[in-house]
């Protein structure tokens, strides 16, 4: 609510037409819950606020979506593609039910939801994954009684952070290219490319330009926006899509049988399942069943790391805090904040128009205790190899000498 109110207030102040707003200002409280372990208010209260914002959007900004069901928290934890789809769809169903309970129709609720997925390393799995999610979502909305228009889905994607590396980072360009290519072939509606140095630092002019050029090349030189379903008719892709749909549906029903995604998270089932896959992924790397160029294979031991360009966050926060305090001293939003009603989004917009800040709006809307769940950590599959190399590099810098390893040979050395 606070972010959306500030944006709407700004559009109005600048003379813009709120009805022309397109895109999404999306809530995803279930993902926030499992990422942080708890929220600053109960889920039910957040659902009340989200329903109020959704009702306002339906009436005043019909092209604006208010839920962004993003799979990053599952993907970054190491989930496989089946888990990513199943748990994300279960989260979306949780939001559907919350909106239906608060007076929206299924057609209204479905149109408020936009999906975001990570594009991973296995090319054909990603193509099949993005092709599979559309009929799955259509089947879910149909089961709720939604019409054909409501069964349509907007799929946004970005390269999976999980598969990016700190060492030999320029290989991330190739990874991003493969991932955006698979997503486009799989039929995504929109794609947000990431700079290749994302795991290391904020992108610079070069890394951002490369990220943009990938999209331009695929659109303008490859013409990938022209075919509706580039992979359609391919036996291998069609068969893989069918298998993914069946497996995702089975896991989705499993979650529903446990009472839905929130109950499954409270019990720790989802976290444990993802962790098991993450550990299996690393074991495959440790035995070189899977290979990461520049890390567990073809590592360049003379590589010089990219400058991380560390920032002084304490100083940044100090400067920003002072700026906000100076701003607050010039406005008086107290009366408008006192009139805020979470069930009336216009009152929140009025407070934002009066100059209220995000934190003031949040405080006025109220806070409270939420359920606590076990978190899903943010990982990258190369992180343990990177930790090993960082330990070695630190030792060399401190001792001015390399590490010593004793090799106990059983048989001739060449063997």
Secondary structure blueprint with pairings:
Blueprint: H1 2-13, E1 23-27, H2 29-36, H3 43-60, E2 64-70, H4 72-75, H5 81-101, H6 106-110, E3 113-119, H7 123-144, E4 155-159, H8 171-186, E5 190-191, H9 205-221, H10 235-257, H11 261-267, H12 269-286, H13 313-328, H14 334-338, H15 345-353, H16 358-365, H17 383-399
Parallel strand pairs: 1-2, 2-3, 3-4, 4-5
Helix pairs in contact: 1-15, 5-7, 5-10, 7-8, 7-10, 8-9
Largest sheet: 5 strands, parallel
Q: What structural category arises from helix and sheet content? A: alpha/beta
CA distance, first residue to last residue: 65 Å
Mean pLDDT across every amino acid position: 94
H/E element sequence: HEHHEHHHEHEHEHHHHHHHHH
Helical stretch tally: 17
What is the number of strand segments?
Answer: 5
Tell me roughly what share of residues is in helical segments. Answer: 40-55%
